[in-house]
């Protein structure tokens, strides 16, 4: 393998890994704080994809304005999902499985709803950024590189808020013990809802970054949900940093597998890796501090 | 156990068998028989899955993988090897049970439910991708067609034929398999293994302290459950005679079966049968609104999780209990 091919493999792995990290860290944040596994997380991606398409293409808004409005709306939708379908179930017995079942139902509902509203046509956004970067014989469109840069910046911002601000301390306190947090005056219910909103914004950002290079369709969330779950488990369930690291690792593994095997085996390699890791290390690769 | 089986489960099962036999002698049209056949096959799938999901309390989400393994292996051996489906279905069920053991091993080490759910789901995705990628054998998403139906059986003058287009024979066959499996499960659940499963579901630590070997029991339950699901997959393959990886192991299969179990009643012995009859039946009525089908399933799952978490089977028990309580109150006030 030549140096430029190797470099291309690494960069491609980091780019898809950054999306997995965005989706996975959102799931990890929610699980770490509320112990809830949201199977409708992928549909937040899909909704964000359609929203940004609507604002940027149908209404012809500026891309940045369209993205900001999309993220705000998706955050609101995430919060609404938590308030309406998840929070009421938490008080009941066997809630963990009920939440899984209800969110699987919600996920299918949103998918077929999107299919009825927008039809089955697959649509793509125009590139946000023009130009190509040349790196020692390797040509990479700025659009693809921007995914990596923006995703890293967003996750960095999240980590900064989580570990260096008072707001982050409130979230982490609720994660450790919601009842004790309530006792010292933290509105735990509100924290749970806002964590959902943050994770929805992370997923929405992933969708916006992807929409110019992938197609927006009712099922676009499904594969990212599974990858996001894999990342969360690999990183140690509920660990924000672990999920980010595992996201990049999974991206790199997939990129490496494509150089050896045909593309259609890529996901088989990724999920087999997941099961192998669980077999050896049930707590994940980077079991560490919780979100 | 009464919560799982309901009152007089053997009587309920006998009534179901009687109804089934009654329908088989009535002049019912082929289309209705086709729907009932599919319901019975899915009810068998659901009762296999219910064993781990509801009765043992292991929240696995990847049982459509075992359905696909049973269906494809039986179809491949029958199609390429020319072996009779009467034999190949057992190979399909055995391989599914083996796969159940294989995926059961890593799961044993995990007590956290999210891990179990995600690992089994990932396993199902691997299985779907493998069948879809082995295009030389399965033709991938183009569909594996030409799967032979069960060989006809002759009793003296009459010959019973099976497969799509032979509605009566297929209905009787699906029913025979379904009720045989149900009778076996009922015997199992009413004896020691049933008690053990209930003990494990209620408290793993307490069960272990009573000398129950959790690993052995869980693995056995997993293999049995996967085997039943694999058998239902194999019967399905030789009934519809065409398979695609997405139709047997895709997300639609997951949501359909999840809806059947939740609407029927997770952890209830008769839940899968009620759920399969209701959902497969109502689905056919709504055939014209095809695109709303999954919308309806999603809404049903959410609705039942909120309003009736123990499904239809749970509703009946709730009513019986209330009547009982009223009965005792009346008796005590009279005395």
What does this structure look like?
The complex is a heterodimer of chains A (291) and B (335). Chain A is mostly helical and 291 residues long. Chain A has a domain at 26-220. Helices cover 74% and strands 3% of the residues of chain A. Chain A has helices at residues 3-34, 41-58, 63-90, 95-118, 142-164, 166-176, 178-183, 188-210, 220-234, 240-260, 266-280; strands at 132-135, 138-141. Chain B has 335 residues and is an all-alpha fold. Chain B is built from 16 helices and 4 strands. In chain B, 48% of the residues are buried. Residues 331-335 of chain B have low confidence and may be disordered. At the A-B interface, helix 3, helix 4, helix 9 and helix 11 of A face helix 5, helix 6, helix 13 and helix 15 of B.
Largest interface: A-B, 44 and 43 residues
Text of the CATH class of chain B: Mainly Alpha
How widely separated are the two ends of chain B?
A: 31 Å
Topology order of chain B in helix (H) and strand (E) letters:
HHHHHHHEEEHHHHEHHHHH
Helix-and-strand structural type of chain B = mainly alpha
Strand content of chain B: under 5%
Question: Looking at the structure, what is the overall shape of chain A?
Answer: globular
Mean pLDDT of chain A: 87
